[in-house]
Known about the structure:
This protein is of the alpha/beta class. The chain contains eleven helices and 14 strands. The site of flavin mononucleotide has 21 residues, from β4 and α10.
Amino acid sequence: MESVKLGAMTLLNRIVMAPMTRNRAQPGNVAGINAATYYAQRASAGLIVTESIQVSPAGQSYPATPGLHSEAQVKGWRTVARSVHAAGGLIVAQLCHGGRISHPLIQPGGATPLAPSAIKPDGQIFGPDWKKHDYVKPEALDEAGIAAIIAEFAAAAENARAAGFDGVEIHAGNGYLIDQFLCEGSNRRDDAYGGAPENRVRFLAEVAEAVSNVMGADRTGVRVSPWNAFNDMSDSAPEKLFPVAGKALARFGLAYLHVIEPVGTKKPLARKIADTAQTKLIVNSGYDGKTAIKALESGGADAVSFAKHFIANPDLPSRLAWDLPLAEADRATYYGGGGKGYTDYPAYQPDEPIEPAEPVEPAEPPEPVESGSPE
Ligand SMILES: Cc1cc2nc3c(=O)[nH]c(=O)nc-3n(C[C@H](O)[C@H](O)[C@H](O)COP(=O)(O)O)c2cc1C
């Protein structure tokens, strides 16, 4: 398990824990001692990327997700970062604004969610009552609103630094606000932030610049998902758009790009995006030990991230290294609840005691020791 350098971070192995929302934040959307335990248990990953963390109250999408915009939240995350460091790991905070993937029921003051354009996503979302509600039509951001959100990302990065994180990952995928700017289906703006790909990548580049200025670009990563349709996303030409996004990020010297591109994608884009961004590449989605080794050995990736396998296998790197069986995670406990399905998955336990292959016997019987010898 070779180490790899992603910017200023030296990972002891190339297995990354992918970000996973688990909806177990404490009152005040604070990451609690439960989160510290959960992440520390998984500290043998070369790098942990936290669950999505909202940069502001209006950036929240789902119930019981943690933020990084209050003193109590900084304090909570400090305990998490310290616990991971004490266990020998590295951890970056995934910073996110949900944009239209939210609901007035979870917005401060019952406000309408904000987005690049007033286009309602299809479908429903969990509210604070843990019941599903139809999405509403979001309000289109004006330029002052855009600038305010960029400032929120910068402030959250400052808080991440204060909490002792090793870096931050900007969430620009999976249909949340930055992705909503990137993709045609959710961005119909006719100003400098809409239209041609060069314009649609502007918001991402401005967030990356603001965050890098605070955190250092060599401790800043970006996550994108060129093929994602989740959260009602669409774009007619991701193969054109995402290299343009990479190019717009090249001048910063980022630590890494984290690309969600299902293993076996016919016309892969991930390496091209990372190359245009002139940075290292973490790939994700659907990998197992064998396909991960293939990606690493072929130069298809610098590191591979795993999400679901890390839920039930806190010691995933050693299970992969030793080709040990993987436990299956219970989907019913992915989101919300207590320690069950969160902090109670054990590290690998062999069923039988491991016997040495050959019985080890001393070559010569030891000399009998005589009592009462003159020496
Ligand atoms: C329970 C769960 C929560 C997730 N939450 C996030 C998240 O907060 N941020 C994010 O970027 N991706 C999130 N994802 C997506 C994963 O990071 C990953 O891209 C996906 O699960 C595919 O990787 P895998 O095949 O290794 O599981 C989540 C996935 C799962 C299963």
